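Protein modeling request. Please complete all fields; requests missing the sequence field cannot be processed.
Requester role: graduate student
Desired output: 3D structure, C-alpha coordinate encoding
Chains: 1
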Amino acid sequence: MAPLLKVEQLHIGFGPLEPLAGVDIAVDRGRILGLVGESGSGKSMTAMSVMGLLPLMGGRITSGRVMFDGTDLTTISERDYRNLRGGRIALITQNPMTSLDPVMRVGRQIDQVAELHLKLDRKAAKEKTIGLMARMRIPSPEMTYDLFPHQLSGGLRQRIVIAMALAGDPDLLIADEPTTALDVTVQAQIIALLSELVREKGLGLILITHDMGVVAQTCDEVAVMYCGKVVEYGQVNAIFDAPRHPYTRALIGCIPQPGMAPRSLAGIPGMVPPASAMPAGCRFNPRCPLAIEVCHSASPPSVIEAGRSVACFLAEGESA
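Delivered output (320 residues):
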Protein backbone atom coordinates (compact mmCIF):
# COMPACT_ATOMS: atom_id res chain seq x y z
CA MET A 1 0.00 0.00 0.00
CA ALA A 2 1.12 3.55 -0.75
CA PRO A 3 1.92 5.75 2.25
CA LEU A 4 -0.79 8.10 3.48
CA LEU A 5 1.56 11.01 2.77
CA LYS A 6 4.62 10.98 0.54
CA VAL A 7 6.67 14.10 -0.12
CA GLU A 8 8.99 13.69 -3.09
CA GLN A 9 11.94 15.96 -3.93
CA LEU A 10 10.19 19.03 -2.51
CA HIS A 11 11.79 22.37 -3.34
CA ILE A 12 10.29 25.67 -2.20
CA GLY A 13 11.24 29.25 -2.98
CA PHE A 14 10.91 32.66 -1.38
CA GLY A 15 12.04 34.94 -4.17
CA PRO A 16 15.61 33.84 -5.04
CA LEU A 17 16.00 31.88 -1.78
CA GLU A 18 15.46 28.11 -1.53
CA PRO A 19 14.84 27.13 2.12
CA LEU A 20 13.90 23.54 1.15
CA ALA A 21 16.06 21.81 -1.43
CA GLY A 22 14.82 18.30 -2.19
CA VAL A 23 12.91 16.93 0.83
CA ASP A 24 11.73 13.29 0.73
CA ILE A 25 9.58 11.94 3.59
CA ALA A 26 6.65 9.54 4.00
CA VAL A 27 4.21 8.63 6.76
CA ASP A 28 1.77 5.71 6.99
CA ARG A 29 -1.49 5.35 8.90
CA GLY A 30 -0.91 4.37 12.50
CA ARG A 31 2.72 5.55 12.37
CA ILE A 32 4.61 8.52 13.79
CA LEU A 33 7.30 10.26 11.75
CA GLY A 34 9.62 12.57 13.64
CA LEU A 35 11.04 15.62 11.85
CA VAL A 36 14.02 16.67 13.92
CA GLY A 37 16.71 19.32 13.65
CA GLU A 38 17.74 22.70 15.01
CA SER A 39 15.70 25.85 14.43
CA GLY A 40 16.12 26.87 10.81
CA SER A 41 16.45 23.31 9.52
CA GLY A 42 13.21 23.48 7.51
CA LYS A 43 10.89 21.40 9.70
CA SER A 44 8.05 23.91 9.98
CA MET A 45 8.50 24.96 6.35
CA THR A 46 7.91 21.35 5.34
CA ALA A 47 4.70 21.35 7.38
CA MET A 48 3.54 24.60 5.79
CA SER A 49 4.16 23.07 2.36
CA VAL A 50 2.00 20.04 3.17
CA MET A 51 -0.74 22.28 4.60
CA GLY A 52 -0.74 24.51 1.50
CA LEU A 53 0.02 27.61 3.55
CA LEU A 54 3.17 28.80 1.76
CA PRO A 55 1.36 31.45 -0.36
CA LEU A 56 0.26 33.19 2.86
CA MET A 57 3.95 33.53 3.74
CA GLY A 58 5.08 34.70 0.30
CA GLY A 59 6.51 31.32 -0.68
CA ARG A 60 5.78 28.71 -3.34
CA ILE A 61 6.58 25.12 -4.23
CA THR A 62 8.99 25.28 -7.16
CA SER A 63 9.25 21.53 -7.83
CA GLY A 64 8.42 18.15 -6.34
CA ARG A 65 5.22 16.42 -5.28
CA VAL A 66 3.14 16.21 -2.11
CA MET A 67 1.11 13.00 -2.48
CA PHE A 68 -1.72 12.64 0.04
CA ASP A 69 -3.84 9.49 -0.21
CA GLY A 70 -3.11 9.27 -3.93
CA THR A 71 -3.64 12.97 -4.77
CA ASP A 72 -0.84 15.39 -5.62
CA LEU A 73 -1.65 18.40 -3.45
CA THR A 74 0.56 20.66 -5.55
CA THR A 75 -2.03 20.41 -8.35
CA ILE A 76 -5.28 21.11 -6.47
CA SER A 77 -7.09 24.43 -6.14
CA GLU A 78 -7.15 26.59 -3.00
CA ARG A 79 -10.85 25.76 -2.63
CA ASP A 80 -10.08 22.03 -2.54
CA TYR A 81 -7.21 22.69 -0.13
CA ARG A 82 -9.57 24.50 2.25
CA ASN A 83 -11.77 21.40 2.35
CA LEU A 84 -8.75 19.27 3.31
CA ARG A 85 -7.09 21.71 5.69
CA GLY A 86 -8.56 21.34 9.17
CA GLY A 87 -10.51 18.31 7.97
CA ARG A 88 -8.49 15.38 6.63
CA ILE A 89 -5.19 17.17 7.36
CA ALA A 90 -4.93 18.99 10.68
CA LEU A 91 -2.21 21.09 12.29
CA ILE A 92 -1.42 21.30 16.00
CA THR A 93 0.51 24.50 16.61
CA GLN A 94 3.24 25.06 19.19
CA ASN A 95 1.74 28.09 20.93
CA PRO A 96 -1.94 27.60 21.82
CA MET A 97 -2.29 31.07 23.34
CA THR A 98 -1.71 32.68 19.94
CA SER A 99 -3.75 30.03 18.11
CA LEU A 100 -6.96 30.43 20.09
CA ASP A 101 -9.36 33.34 19.74
CA PRO A 102 -9.11 35.18 23.09
CA VAL A 103 -12.71 36.46 22.97
CA MET A 104 -14.45 33.19 22.04
CA ARG A 105 -15.24 30.38 24.44
CA VAL A 106 -12.99 27.38 23.83
CA GLY A 107 -15.85 24.97 23.29
CA ARG A 108 -17.27 27.01 20.43
CA GLN A 109 -13.86 27.15 18.79
CA ILE A 110 -13.82 23.35 18.68
CA ASP A 111 -17.46 23.21 17.52
CA GLN A 112 -16.71 25.27 14.44
CA VAL A 113 -14.34 22.65 13.01
CA ALA A 114 -16.98 19.90 13.12
CA GLU A 115 -19.65 22.26 11.80
CA LEU A 116 -17.48 23.25 8.84
CA HIS A 117 -15.88 19.95 7.88
CA LEU A 118 -18.41 17.35 9.07
CA LYS A 119 -21.53 19.49 8.46
CA LEU A 120 -22.85 18.86 11.98
CA ASP A 121 -25.51 21.08 13.45
CA ARG A 122 -24.70 23.09 16.56
CA LYS A 123 -26.15 20.55 19.01
CA ALA A 124 -24.32 17.59 17.45
CA ALA A 125 -21.10 19.60 17.22
CA LYS A 126 -21.29 20.46 20.91
CA GLU A 127 -21.84 16.81 21.82
CA LYS A 128 -18.79 15.86 19.76
CA THR A 129 -16.76 18.66 21.40
CA ILE A 130 -17.65 17.54 24.92
CA GLY A 131 -16.67 13.99 23.99
CA LEU A 132 -13.34 15.14 22.56
CA MET A 133 -12.59 17.24 25.63
CA ALA A 134 -13.27 14.23 27.84
CA ARG A 135 -11.04 12.15 25.54
CA MET A 136 -8.31 14.76 26.06
CA ARG A 137 -8.71 14.17 29.82
CA ILE A 138 -9.85 17.74 30.36
CA PRO A 139 -11.53 17.87 33.78
CA SER A 140 -15.22 18.89 33.90
CA PRO A 141 -15.53 19.27 30.10
CA GLU A 142 -19.06 20.70 30.29
CA MET A 143 -17.81 23.53 32.50
CA THR A 144 -14.55 24.04 30.59
CA TYR A 145 -16.56 24.32 27.34
CA ASP A 146 -17.74 27.78 28.41
CA LEU A 147 -14.36 29.14 29.53
CA PHE A 148 -12.10 31.54 27.64
CA PRO A 149 -8.47 30.66 26.75
CA HIS A 150 -6.96 32.94 29.41
CA GLN A 151 -8.85 31.00 32.09
CA LEU A 152 -7.00 27.77 31.28
CA SER A 153 -3.49 26.57 32.06
CA GLY A 154 -0.95 26.05 29.29
CA GLY A 155 -1.47 22.30 29.35
CA LEU A 156 -5.26 22.62 29.08
CA ARG A 157 -4.95 25.14 26.23
CA GLN A 158 -2.75 22.68 24.36
CA ARG A 159 -5.36 19.95 24.86
CA ILE A 160 -8.00 22.31 23.46
CA VAL A 161 -5.85 22.85 20.35
CA ILE A 162 -5.46 19.07 19.94
CA ALA A 163 -9.24 18.65 20.30
CA MET A 164 -9.72 21.27 17.56
CA ALA A 165 -7.37 19.32 15.31
CA LEU A 166 -9.30 16.09 15.93
CA ALA A 167 -12.77 17.63 15.55
CA GLY A 168 -12.68 17.26 11.75
CA ASP A 169 -11.82 13.52 11.95
CA PRO A 170 -8.41 13.92 10.23
CA ASP A 171 -6.36 11.18 8.60
CA LEU A 172 -3.10 13.11 9.05
CA LEU A 173 -1.99 15.19 12.03
CA ILE A 174 0.98 17.54 11.90
CA ALA A 175 2.16 18.54 15.38
CA ASP A 176 4.60 21.45 15.17
CA GLU A 177 6.57 21.35 18.44
CA PRO A 178 3.32 20.95 20.43
CA THR A 179 5.02 20.86 23.84
CA THR A 180 7.60 23.66 23.54
CA ALA A 181 5.88 26.04 25.97
CA LEU A 182 4.93 23.37 28.54
CA ASP A 183 6.70 22.03 31.61
CA VAL A 184 8.31 18.59 31.47
CA THR A 185 5.47 16.72 33.21
CA VAL A 186 2.79 18.17 30.93
CA GLN A 187 5.03 17.56 27.89
CA ALA A 188 5.12 13.85 28.71
CA GLN A 189 1.33 13.76 29.11
CA ILE A 190 0.71 15.45 25.75
CA ILE A 191 3.18 13.24 23.88
CA ALA A 192 1.65 10.10 25.45
CA LEU A 193 -1.81 11.32 24.48
CA LEU A 194 -0.81 11.91 20.85
CA SER A 195 0.79 8.46 20.64
CA GLU A 196 -2.34 6.86 22.05
CA LEU A 197 -4.54 8.63 19.50
CA VAL A 198 -2.35 7.48 16.60
CA ARG A 199 -2.53 3.83 17.65
CA GLU A 200 -6.27 3.87 18.44
CA LYS A 201 -7.54 5.85 15.46
CA GLY A 202 -4.98 4.80 12.86
CA LEU A 203 -3.90 8.36 12.13
CA GLY A 204 -0.65 9.35 10.52
CA LEU A 205 1.32 11.80 12.69
CA ILE A 206 4.23 14.04 11.78
CA LEU A 207 5.86 15.18 15.02
CA ILE A 208 8.10 18.21 14.51
CA THR A 209 10.61 18.70 17.30
CA HIS A 210 14.20 19.61 18.13
CA ASP A 211 14.24 17.08 20.99
CA MET A 212 15.95 13.81 20.01
CA GLY A 213 14.86 12.30 23.33
CA VAL A 214 11.19 12.75 22.43
CA VAL A 215 11.85 11.20 19.01
CA ALA A 216 13.55 8.16 20.55
CA GLN A 217 10.65 7.53 22.92
CA THR A 218 7.75 8.29 20.57
CA CYS A 219 8.42 7.93 16.84
CA ASP A 220 8.53 4.97 14.47
CA GLU A 221 10.61 6.70 11.79
CA VAL A 222 12.74 9.83 11.89
CA ALA A 223 13.89 12.32 9.28
CA VAL A 224 16.87 14.37 10.44
CA MET A 225 16.81 17.76 8.71
CA TYR A 226 19.53 20.34 8.26
CA CYS A 227 19.37 23.51 6.14
CA GLY A 228 16.36 22.39 4.11
CA LYS A 229 17.59 18.87 3.40
CA VAL A 230 16.92 15.46 4.92
CA VAL A 231 20.41 14.26 5.86
CA GLU A 232 19.36 10.94 7.42
CA TYR A 233 16.09 9.02 7.33
CA GLY A 234 14.91 5.63 8.56
CA GLN A 235 13.62 3.56 11.45
CA VAL A 236 14.17 5.20 14.83
CA ASN A 237 15.90 2.21 16.43
CA ALA A 238 18.29 1.76 13.52
CA ILE A 239 19.31 5.41 13.46
CA PHE A 240 19.76 5.74 17.22
CA ASP A 241 21.70 2.47 17.41
CA ALA A 242 24.04 3.39 14.54
CA PRO A 243 23.75 7.00 13.31
CA ARG A 244 25.72 7.47 10.09
CA HIS A 245 25.54 11.21 9.41
CA PRO A 246 27.81 13.46 11.52
CA TYR A 247 24.89 15.80 12.22
CA THR A 248 22.72 12.95 13.51
CA ARG A 249 25.58 11.83 15.75
CA ALA A 250 25.97 15.38 17.04
CA LEU A 251 22.27 15.70 17.86
CA ILE A 252 22.23 12.38 19.71
CA GLY A 253 25.34 13.52 21.56
CA CYS A 254 23.33 16.47 22.90
CA ILE A 255 20.90 14.20 24.78
CA PRO A 256 21.58 14.27 28.56
CA GLN A 257 22.37 10.84 30.02
CA PRO A 258 22.00 9.62 33.63
CA GLY A 259 25.22 9.87 35.58
CA MET A 260 26.89 12.39 33.27
CA ALA A 261 29.67 14.43 34.82
CA PRO A 262 28.94 18.15 35.31
CA ARG A 263 29.65 20.29 32.22
CA SER A 264 30.20 17.20 30.07
CA LEU A 265 27.13 17.58 27.84
CA ALA A 266 28.25 17.96 24.24
CA GLY A 267 27.23 20.82 21.96
CA ILE A 268 27.39 21.49 18.24
CA PRO A 269 29.76 24.37 17.37
CA GLY A 270 28.50 27.14 15.11
CA MET A 271 24.97 27.96 14.00
CA VAL A 272 22.52 26.99 11.27
CA PRO A 273 23.17 29.48 8.43
CA PRO A 274 20.31 31.59 7.07
CA ALA A 275 18.77 30.66 3.71
CA SER A 276 20.55 33.66 2.17
CA ALA A 277 24.00 32.36 3.12
CA MET A 278 24.03 28.63 2.47
CA PRO A 279 27.57 27.23 2.11
CA ALA A 280 28.70 25.52 -1.08
CA GLY A 281 28.77 21.74 -1.14
CA CYS A 282 27.38 19.89 1.86
CA ARG A 283 25.46 22.44 3.90
CA PHE A 284 26.78 20.97 7.16
CA ASN A 285 30.46 21.18 6.16
CA PRO A 286 31.33 24.41 8.12
CA ARG A 287 30.31 22.68 11.36
CA CYS A 288 31.35 19.12 10.56
CA PRO A 289 34.50 17.78 12.28
CA LEU A 290 34.83 15.05 9.63
CA ALA A 291 34.51 17.22 6.49
CA ILE A 292 36.80 16.29 3.62
CA GLU A 293 37.73 18.26 0.50
CA VAL A 294 34.76 17.15 -1.62
CA CYS A 295 32.32 18.26 1.11
CA HIS A 296 33.19 21.91 0.34
CA SER A 297 32.43 21.71 -3.37
CA ALA A 298 29.69 19.12 -4.00
CA SER A 299 26.38 18.22 -2.43
CA PRO A 300 26.34 14.58 -1.30
CA PRO A 301 23.69 12.29 -2.81
CA SER A 302 21.43 10.22 -0.54
CA VAL A 303 22.73 6.69 -0.14
CA ILE A 304 19.81 4.28 0.36
CA GLU A 305 20.58 1.00 2.07
CA ALA A 306 18.45 -1.45 4.09
CA GLY A 307 15.48 0.91 4.29
CA ARG A 308 17.36 3.99 5.44
CA SER A 309 19.05 6.86 3.67
CA VAL A 310 21.96 9.14 4.52
CA ALA A 311 23.35 12.09 2.57
CA CYS A 312 27.06 12.06 3.38
CA PHE A 313 30.18 11.35 1.32
CA LEU A 314 31.66 9.39 4.20
CA ALA A 315 28.57 7.18 4.38
CA GLU A 316 28.75 6.74 0.62
CA GLY A 317 32.27 5.42 1.01
CA GLU A 318 31.17 3.08 3.82
CA SER A 319 28.38 1.74 1.63
CA ALA A 320 30.76 1.08 -1.24
